Amino acid sequence: MLTLADTIALRALYLAAVLAAGGAGLIMVFTPGFAARKLFYDAVTVDVYLRLLGAFQLSLGLLAIIGLIWPPQMAAILLIQLGAMVIWVVAGAVPAILTGKRETALLFMTIAFTVWSLAIGFLFPFAAVFG
Asked: Which of 103, 87, 85, 101 is nearest to 17 (CA)?
């Protein structure tokens, strides 16, 4: 059973997901040139893969809206984000940084994904959702 604090924590995470993932997804899908310049600091090319990433992010943001209404039932959305970001940091960002890549976009995304992963890790009520 979720406590009031658990519900508030989950809703805060969902709201952040709506704003961050949903917002970034909207920009990548509908204005990919702007996304390439502003979100990725010109480190990516505008192609179908940028829009595919945007569609994935937008779908997570839209599903997080449902999580605002039914927090425990949509917990998988946050866990998918956690898994995707941890895998990207460990398998993508860290090796790139260790080989000397220091682009602004890579460093910014690494910091943002690490902070988001820590937020989910600390705020997600694992025992209440799965216990």
From this structure: 85
Q: How many residues does the chain have?
A: 131
Which of the four pLDDT bands, split at 50, 70 and 90, describes residue 1?
confident
| Per-residue pLDDT tens over the stretch 94-123 | 999 999 998 888 999 999 999 999 999 999
89 contacts: CB under 8 Å, gap ≥ 6: 110, 113, 114, 117
Query: CA-CA-CA-CA torsion for 6, 76, 64, 69, nearest 10 degrees?
Result: -50
The mean pLDDT value of the chain amounts to: 94
**Which residues form the domain of 107?**
4-130
**Distance between CA 36 and CA 27 in Å, rounded?**
9
2: left (phi over 0), alpha (psi -120 to 50) or beta: beta
Name, in order, each residue with C-beta under 8 angstroms of 6's C-beta and a sequence gap of 6 or more: 71, 125, 128
Q: What are phi and psi of 57, to 5 degrees?
A: -65, -40
Q: How many domains does the chain have?
A: 1
